[in-house]
Every structure is written in C-alpha cells, then in structure tokens.
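Q: What would this complex look like in 3D?
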Amino acid sequence: MFPFNFEWIWDMSHIIFMGGLWYALSILGAGMTFCIIKAILATANGKGSHHH
Amino acid sequence: MDSALIPKGVKRCPIWQFALGLGVVGAVLLWGVYAMFLCWFKGLNQTNMNDYYGFALWIWADLAVIALGGGAFFTGLLKYIIGKDDLKNIINYAVLIGFICYSSALLILAIDVGQPLRSWFIFWHANVHSMLTEVAFCLSCYFAVLTIEYIPLVLENRQLDKVPFVHNLTHTMHEHMAVFAATGAFLSFFHQGSLGGVAGVLFGRPFAFREHLFIWPWTFFLFTWSAAAYGPSFTLLVTRITEKITRKKLVKESTIQLLAKISGWMMLTYITAKIIDTVYWATTTAPSLGFTLKDFYSNNPVYGFWILGAELILGGVIPALMLVTPKIRQNRFALTTATVLAVIGVCLNRWVMILQVMAVPVMSFDTWAMYYPSWQEVATTVLPVAYGIILIMISYRYLPVFPNEAELNPLEPETPVVATAGTEEAAEEGPEPELTPAEA
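A: Here is my prediction, written as structure tokens for the whole assembly.
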C-alpha cells in the first residue's frame, strides 16, 4: 500500500507499518544493488578471472 | 557422473544411492503435494478446522518451524554483529535450516489462506491494526534476507564459482553480509514477538491473555526469547543427525560447544522468565478473569497438568541445565538428548499457545472443544519436512555447506604413497619405528 492508494490514511499506524515495510525492503534492495554493481565493476576490472 | 559439481576435497555417496534417497523422500513429498492440491481445489473443507478452530495444525507447524528456524537469525547476529567468529563453521548450515523453515512456513500459509492467488492482498490492503500484518511483513522480508544469505552458498558451487562475475558477487555479498544479518535480526525480533503477541492480546481467551508492557504482552518477549534460545539447539540437532547419516564429523567441536553453551544460557534465562510469567498468570491474571489454574487442565481427554510440566520442566529446565553444564554438554549423547528435549519443549509451547487456547471453554455453558487433524492437514504438514530433507540432501552434496568438512575428514589417497627411503622428508615425517602401524 502506498500513500496514493484510496485506503491510505495519514495516521501513525499506517506510517509505522508501511514505513517499516518499505524501509526494510529499501535496505535489502539497495544492499543487493550495491553488491551487484560492485561485482560488475570488479569483473570489468579483471578480478576473479584467475582465482583457480 | 556428477563429480564435477561436488566440492573439492570431500567424498559423497554414489549417484544411485543419492537418487534412491531422493526418490524415497520424494514419494512423501508427492503425498503432501497431492493433499495440498486437494486443499486448493476443493477448499478448506478438506481440513478438520471449524468455528472453534480457525487456527489449527498448520498454524502450530508455522509457529514451530519459525521458532526452530530462529537459529539462523540468532547465529547470524552472534557471528556478524557480536563477533563470535567461531560460528563461521556452522553459519552456512544455520542459514540453510532457517531458509527451509521460513520457506516451509510460507508454503503452509499459502495452503492455509485457501486463496493463495490473493496472498498479495495483505501487502496492498494491509490491516495496520493487526499483529498478523506485522508478522506477514516481517516474515516475507526475513525470508528475502535468508534468500540473500543462501545465495552466496549456492554460488560457491564448484562450477558456478568458475564464472568471474559469480565469484565476485559471492565475495562482495560475503563482505557486506553484516548489513543483511542486522536487518534479519531486526525483522526476526518483531515477527517472532508478534506471533507471541497474537496469543497474549486475546482478552477473550484467559488461557492465553497476559499482562502488557506498553502495547506488548509478555508473550511478545517470551516468543522472541524462546526462538533465540531454542533455534540454535535445533541447528545443533540437525547437524548431529546429518553427521550420523553421513558418518562424518562436519563441524569443529569448539563451535558445537560454543553454540550449545549460548543456547543453554539463553534457554535458562528464558525458562526462568517463562516460569515467573506462568506463576503470575496462574495466581493473578487468570483469577482476575474468573478462572482458576485447574480450569485449564481438567475435564478433558488430552490437556492435563502433564503438558505444563512437560513444557516447562522436561522441555525447558532439564535441557537448559544440561547445556549450561560443561561436563554434560561435552558428552555427545547428552548434548543430543538435550537438543531433542529442547525441540520438544518449544514445539509443545507453540502447541499450547495455539491449540490449547482454542480448546479451553471460555463461557459457562461451553465445553472443551477437541480437535484432531484430517489426513490432508497431516500430509501438508509433513510436506515441508520432506522438502527440507531434499534441500539439505542437494545442498550437502553440491555446496560447501560445512567449511571444515575436508579438514575434519581427510580423503585417503587413491594410490598408496610410498616414502622414498633415505630422503630427509621420509625420515622427518614417517612414523617412529618402535610404534605399530595403528599406534603410528
């Protein structure tokens, strides 16, 4: 649920519950995006090619 | 046939033996899948749930596996945040067990909701006054965390790791795992707690209702505490079972002892708090609502005082004392017994807090409402167990789940190495001449 949905009410319950959900999802999403970008850059720089 | 996929330096059973094992467990899995489809296509009339039992075997199984899977978040917290580095030897397996437990919980819920295609309603049309909404949010997010923690293990497969991007991604994810572990611990604290909170706020059910601290009933804290205490015990038990089946030592003894000690102390503090909670509830809360303790444990065919004793003493005090006593803990049989008792204890606690709550009469004209699950409920509850065994089998075979396995179980060389007589190396490393070969 987002603030632009018809069910949304600007009260503490909605802000805490939905804010908490989107906060957690943002951390996970941002964390994974960071890891993937870092891995792409490392691969582009030739790291990991000769680790065997 | 699949030797190229098996981790280096370890031995696995022949492929036919592995396939046979998969086939046997797979048959049980198919039985559960059949029952699952019956529930989805014919509806919840396939169950023995009724107006008394909106929560039944599935919800017990859900709460039990979530508590048992608590080993993942607590071990992750200890390793990545508190810095107990010795736990790196068991963290992969704890994550795998947690992943199985939480995916099982979600699978059971997908059957229980009756209309799985509408599962997304809880996110889009959330009831923000319900503890179960918080549970759904945290459960889904924490499952995402467990998936993120499990991915590097999958990517460490011998063939996948040869791909440079995959190798780099695994390395990067390991580097930043503390962020995910911290998020997981935060989410776990709330969903474990809210599962307990659901029972504790039921003011119409004096068997479950507890006093509150602000908005949280005591059961909120007790559930989180018990998951952190009993989850690692379940991890230890499954590790022990795996060692028995594979006939190998898979985790260093120091790691086992550390986790057992932590689990024991957590359990001891938890069970002390639980006993205080029970005494206060029995002497103050329940009487204030018009009930005596005896009302909850008499005039029915199943729930007697034995269940209270079994939960608190047999499944609480005894395993806790066993695990905090070094001499007992160091005995492998006693350690396994303690973990078995602990698992029984936490499962009984969840059973009582779900099913006995429903059974106890609350009106003067009510009688005890007993419940026995249908075979479809039993089959769909066994289904995640079979799924878990299969995932463990596949992960153990193809992934480096136990980092110390090769070191603890060195492979015998295929051709006997004969030391060259007269060389310095042979003289330095060879057995002493006065010892017999076995002594050497």
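A: To summarize the key features: The radius of gyration of chain A is 19 Å. The mean pLDDT of chain A is 91.
Q: Very helpful, thank you.
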